Sequence to fold (512 residues):
Amino acid sequence: MRLEVSCIDRVGLAKDILVVLEKHGINLIAIDASNKGFLFLQFAEISFETLRELMPQIRKVESVHDVRTVSFMPSEQEHYALKTLLKTLPDSVFSTDSKGRIRIANESALLTLGMAEHEVVDESLNHWVQGFNFARWMSETPVLAQATRVQINSNEYLAEMLPIYLPDDDDTTILAGAVISLKSPARVGKQFNALQNQTTGFDNVLANSDKMKDVLKQAKRMAQLDAPLLITGETGTGKELMARASHDASMRREHPFIAINCAALPDSVAEEELFGFVTNGTVVKRGLFEEAKGGTVFLDEIAEMSKAAQVKLLRLLQDGTFRRIGGDVEVRADVRIICSTQKNLAELCQTGEFREDLYYRIHVLSYHMPSLRERKVDVIPLTEMFLEHYSQQLSSPLRRISANCRDYLFTYAWPGNVRQLKNAIFRAVSMWDGSTELTVEQLKLPSYAEGFGYFDEEFEGTLDEAMKEYESGLLRRLYPAYPSTRQLAKKLGVSHTAIANKLRDYNISKKK
Fold:
């Protein structure tokens, strides 16, 4: 039960109110005094009848204007606001007394130490944090704010230390302790870049592996050139991220970047969306190439573009112009075109599914994004980066990665590459169960083995059916790349008749 008493401040007011409470046998739990004419009282729940008798008696006390029930005390609101702030902060925060002993540690701090709250409270912060003597610092006169490098185990942090001073009589202050905030080097770097507004797209690309470092080096050089760029790689490797980074690092960065998923554009509207259309001489819709004037157009999964759209794109790349659907006016497009694909465009050119002349036009500059299997060194740093990002976004405490989870992350095949890892971390953080470590079970990754694919625990059928399914899939992938069944038979080490029969049995042709 909480009461708000509006009153005029006077000596002895609180005592008179306590006498009234004592008459009813009410034990006061807490009292808040405000210099704005309010007094707040907290005590155990009482019956409605008792409350009905109590409130008029308090109103009769000299200097009291009115009494009403309230949901919370001001000190409670401040306490829980501070607690919520500390809980959601990604940085480790400690509050110590004047001897350097821990009084408060937020959840990120406890996770960093790997300890429970009852294990650290009243213990010296220097038991865990090396590189700075907190007790000696607070014995100085005066105690001034400082920032220095410290270590916890083998990890380095930037420690920001602020003394806590309480006001005393005669305009003096009393040192009550300090607040210490620890920031990781990665977080300090992000804050500095944000402050200086110097972040470019490539600053957000993590590259610890040699393969990724080589790709990043190529990409930075190609970003300065205005020629078409083709980015290849498996799904989820970060092709669009690199395209955006290339735009941000180019001379066109002040102009639009428009990403188009060619696989999501139906053939019937692809030309209209890309190039716009005209009716009776009036421009009804401006195409995306016009909308991106001066900027960059990113054509994701270019292999899925319709044949008609391929013809118009080829012309745009040849002379820099195009015509809107239904129009006869030449429109000049001032854009840079970046394309991406997970398919082998050279093979698609051989089968007639992609224009060969267009392939050579978009393949002026190119690089290949390595799969996550080829850059294993990046798996754990990426996991830590996504953990920090989503912990901040979802106001969840930052967790460590358990030893078993590290091994699992490193050995998993990652068929979905970085996108699959990112989604797995998001799911784990969003479904946080209060644990202090990220575990294998929380990732909920499907069983997968490189070279075999996902394990189907509910597989039904015979071995013969499974073999035929695999054989059919293999022939469908290989046949389009060979000019004749004889050459395919030679490649697979079987007779021409056997191959011809299997292609017929599985209804496989080059068109299919």
Summary: The chain has 21 helices and 22 strands. The two ends are 76 Å apart (CA to CA). The longest strand covers residues 155-167.
